[in-house]
């Protein structure tokens, strides 16, 4: 059996996040399976040939297909089921942005609840009492 060299394997999921916008919509966290390039090409071909004006529903359908979880809650703070009819009710900007993240066209926003790799490296170095990454190695090489 051959290895998958492109990194997107069956079951591969990624975390996504979009920050809220001035009362228009709340932030959303989600997990998703990225679209493969051939899926994007086929999907965009269908959208460009759409004569019925269904591209909004097509976008909601592709987002529903690729999302694995989301943080949407109703007014009573109960989780909103991840279903087509609920996805299509997202604010238009959110729907398009999530779709573009799934297609690989734009990155997710930085999630303030998750540390970046640099923050993680600095935290580990601080706990271990080491100098910033790379500086210690340079100092040790100078001693030799």
Tag the structure with descriptive keywords.
disordered N terminus; 2 domains; single chain; 144 residues; mainly alpha; 3 strands; three-stranded antiparallel β-sheet
Enumerate how many helices there are, as a single number: 6
Overall domain count? 2
| Major β-sheet strand ordering | 1-2-3
Low-confidence stretches: 1-5
Helix-strand makeup class: mainly alpha
The radius of gyration over CA amounts to 21 Å
Number of distinct beta strands: 3
Estimated helix fraction: 40-55%
Straight-line N-to-C gap = 47 Å
Quaternary form: single chain
Task: Report the order of strands and helices.
Answer: EEHHEHHHH
Beta-strand content bin: 5-15%
What is the overall shape?
globular
Mean pLDDT: 81
The biggest sheet amounts to: 3 strands, antiparallel
What does this structure look like?
- This protein is mainly alpha-helical and 144 residues long.
- The protein has two domains: 14-113; 114-144, no CATH class.
- 42% of the residues lie in helices and 10% in strands.
- It contains six helices and three strands.
- It has helices at residues 37-48, 55-66, 84-87, 92-103, 117-127, 135-143; strands at residues 14-18, 28-32, 67-70.
- A three-stranded antiparallel beta sheet has the order 1-2-3.
- It is globular and about 65 Å long.
- The protein starts with 13 loop residues before the first strand and ends with a helix.
- 14% of the residues are buried.
